[in-house]
Amino acid sequence: MSADTHSTAVERTAIKKVSLRLVPFVALMFFVNYLDRTAISFAEPNGMGADLALTAAQFGFASGIFFLGYIVLEVPSNMALHRFGARRWLARIMVSWGIVSLLFTWVSSTGQLYGLRFLLGVAEAGFFPGAILFLSQWVPSRHRTKILGLFYLAQPLTTVFGAPLAGWLIGRHGMFGLEGWRVMFLFVSLPAIVLGLVAYFYLIDRPADAKWLTPAERDWLTAELAAENAQKTGHEGKHAKGDLKAAFGNARVWVLALVYFGFVYGLYALAFFLPTIISGFQEQYDTTFSVMDKAWITAIPYLPAAVVLFFWTRHATRHGTRTWHVAGPAVVGGVSIPLALYMGSPTATIAVITVTASAIFAALPVFWSIPSRFLTGAAAAAGIALINTAGNIAGFAAGYITGWLKDWTGAYYAPLYLVGFFMLLSAALMVRLAARDRTAGPVPGTDRQPMEAHR
Question: CATH code at 151?
């Protein structure tokens, strides 16, 4: 066997083992994470809104204040993960948020709801960018889109499986003397605590310590990642070694943060308000849905979204990431979401929303393969956290502004038009960034543009 053939075989088996050993577990952590943070969207139209006398604006603020808490510790948390290692830090985050999430079972006022949502954000701070950073440190850049795509499948699948699960738990009204929505909070919180404890013993911080890799696989991964990081350092100079200036002083990071803002604004406008919009179908179209009916309808857009995400990231991996892999879905989402307002039936409305959800989820994992191409070490931790902070601001804005505009205008027209605007803005910024980089030269750490990846 030639050296090149042997190297290719080692690469193939190493990436396969990482895909099977780490990605499903981290994706399961993300599944529980996303379910916990969006559980409020299932609770509000199924008893919590009435029990706590919430207006749409109050519900939107309660949904969004989570992200303000997240922002407080976003960058420090990711820097701590870089310092202490993913195994300890991600485990700590999960146990913390599971405990806070459990307290929602006994919330009894709007003020308590606000306080717990804020604390939930503080407890979860750093999980998502930490998971992205962790997975990015296990595979070379040419495999990153595939790995992040597999990881990101957890997010749409959370709603596919989580919405019916939430509906079933809400149907257990009276268990332990609790209202159905309180039963749901009780049982969706416990897995986070259990997974956090398991993660402490299961996760490994770096390939060099992975006993489930052969020596050849460990050596190959370690050498490939070290060479990549050295190349980035060589292009970026002393700043790439990792202080905050390398991330906060990089214009490309700030543009990517704005692009991400638009996607996340659309993501959470749908996540927090889709169950409420579906409940509104009953009056709008003179029909009646049970709790489980509404749960299944909520899940519908996310199954096709998961399928589209899988094949879109697969295409980007095989053919190289291009500008249109991110900008194209942004245009589709920006145009489709306002169209949902003009459909004449629940079926047509959900069909259009499915297109929007598919567009958002197709772009996100491809997008997250970009920052680690030109940042390394602590700069990567800070840069990814900074971009995700923009997403957290969008999460707060999407929840609060959508609810406020709904109360002010009496309908969801203005809120959804705003979603469309932000997604189209993301597309425009993505195209502008690619054009700027073609003029300025190659991305540091690669020999291609930021929207292009090696096959």
Answer: 1.20.1250.20
